[in-house]
TrEMBL record:
Physiological role: Involved in the modulation of the specificity of the ClpAP-mediated ATP-dependent protein degradation.
GO biological process, one term: proteolysis
Gene (name only): clpS
The organism's taxonomic lineage, starting at the top: Bacteria, Pseudomonadati, Pseudomonadota, Betaproteobacteria, Burkholderiales
The name this protein goes by in its record: ATP-dependent Clp protease adapter protein ClpS
Family: Belongs to the ClpS family.
The organism's place on the tree of life at top rank: Bacteria
Keywords associated with the record: Hydrolase, Protease
A molecular function (GO) term: peptidase activity
Subunit structure of this chain's protein: Binds to the N-terminal domain of the chaperone ClpA.
HAMAP family: ClpS
């Protein structure tokens, strides 16, 4: 059985680094209305209307707009929420997460 001293020595040898972060982005399509995208950004990423509109325009102009950077579990949950909401509304909006 490991002693307290063994555990402390092990922790000192291990270089602890923070967990990786993931950016959550929306991808452009030709069918999802811009107003719907703005509403999704406001609802799921807590952005004000002006910021949400800027992100939506980035999606529209450049094909992708980053909505936020999160830990892996939170990013995955946000992607699932957005995709579920879009499908229920009948839109093909794509939401992805990418390691930063």
């Amino acid at each position: 059985m490991a002693t307290k001293h063994d555990t402390e020595a092990l922790l000192e040898r291990q270089a602890l680094k923070p967990p990786p972060l993931y950016q959550v982005a929306l991808l452009n399509d030709d069918y999802t209305p811009m107003e719907f995208v703005v509403a999704v950004i406001q609802e799921y990423f807590n952005k004000d209307r002006e910021t949400a509109t800027q992100i939506m325009l980035s999606v529209h102009r450049y094909g992708k707009g980053v909505c936020g950077v999160f830990s892996k579990d939170i990013a995955c949950t946000k992607v699932e929420f957005v995709l579920t909401h879009a499908r229920k509304a009948g839109h093909p909006l794509q939401c992805v997460m990418e390691e930063v």
